[in-house]
Design goal:
This protein has 254 residues and is an alpha+beta fold. It has two domains: 64 residues, Winged helix-like DNA-binding domain superfamily/Winged helix DNA-binding domain (Arc Repressor Mutant, subunit A, Orthogonal Bundle), CATH 1.10.10; 169 residues, GAF domain (Beta-Lactamase, 2-Layer Sandwich). Helix content is 47%, strand content 20%. The chain is built from nine helices and nine strands. Strands 6-5-4-9-8-7 form a six-stranded antiparallel sheet. It has a three-stranded antiparallel sheet with strand order 1-3-2. A hairpin with a 5-residue loop joins strand 8 and strand 9. Helix 1 packs across helix 3 and helix 4 packs antiparallel against helix 9. The protein is elongated, with a radius of gyration of 22 Å. One of its GO terms (biological process) is negative regulation of DNA-templated transcription. It holds the Pfam family HTH_IclR. One of its GO terms (molecular function) is DNA binding. This is IclR family transcriptional regulator.
Length: 254
């Protein structure tokens, strides 16, 4: 089979800009002239790339017209590190919960104020098939883990979410409008957990609880999912279990 040439899918301007960032990783400061001499890019191209990176706080320009890495990269690095950390901390708890309940458990993080991304998944013994997979994203209001985090966002974030969301019906139980979503978020804040009652997949029910960091900020959510009949039959037990699992993970993050 012929290998696909991945280079044909690379956007050259982005690739070049990232090369400048890598160059600055190896040098505390560089001038425009330094970068021209150290790369094959033209002076005007480097100038435009640096201006773009500076706009996004990826690089910063010093008083003597030299460039260094910007604080936004430190923020991004911190986010990546914390997300890797939370997965490592949460995984044993997800394994334990799945082993005890025989159901599937998830860890998910709200990644851009509109979607949750599944960071971890431990399959239970249940035969029910579910679409979720590690790395997959979904609109927050379609999942228990998404709603468990969205409920504790500030009002501006919730307003932005509603403004940028089409309430398409995945199933007959999917939240259909702003009013229904706000009522659901109010319930979640009051009870401390969220439910996905066949809202994203027919027959699939999920209970989720938020995970908080040392500042008390919600940074993720964990869930237990399974077939409707079994989940409802053991609802009180599973809700206690998922809230306790979230509490234990939060305690480790603190």
């Amino acid at each position: 089979m012929q290998n696909t040439n991945v280079n044909q899918y690379i956007l050259q301007s982005v690739d070049n800009s990232l090369s400048l960032i890598e160059l600055l990783c190896d040098h505390e400061e560089l001038s425009l002239a330094d970068m021209v001499s150290m790369t094959d890019y033209g002076k005007s191209s480097i100038f435009r790339m640096l201006n773009t990176l500076e706009k996004h706080k990826m690089v910063t320009k010093t008083e003597n017209n030299r460039y260094r890495l910007g604080y936004r990269l430190a923020t991004i690095g911190s986010i990546v590190t914390s997300r890797m950390e939370i997965t490592g901390i949460a995984h044993p708890y997800l394994v334990d919960l799945s082993a005890r309940t025989k159901e599937t458990t998830h860890l998910a993080v709200l990644v851009d104020d509109t979607k949750v991304q599944f960071f971890d998944k431990v399959r239970g013994d249940s035969s029910i098939w579910m679409e979720s997979s590690v790395g997959m994203t979904r609109k927050a209001h379609l999942t228990g883990t998404g709603k468990a985090q969205l409920a504790f966002c500030d009002e501006a974030q919730i307003e932005s979410y509603i403004k940028n969301t089409e309430f398409s019906q995945m199933t007959r139980y999917t939240i259909k409008d702003e009013k229904e979503l706000r009522e659901e978020l109010d319930r979640i804040r009051q009870q401390g957990y969220a439910c996905d009652k066949e809202e994203s997949e027919e027959g699939l029910v999920c209970f989720a609880a938020p995970v908080v960091n040392f500042k008390g900020k919600v940074v993720a959510a964990v869930s237990i999912s399974g077939f409707r009949d079994k989940m409802y039959a053991r609802q009180d037990e599973f809700i206690r279990e998922i809230k306790e699992t979230a509490r234990q993970i939060s305690a480790e993050l603190a």
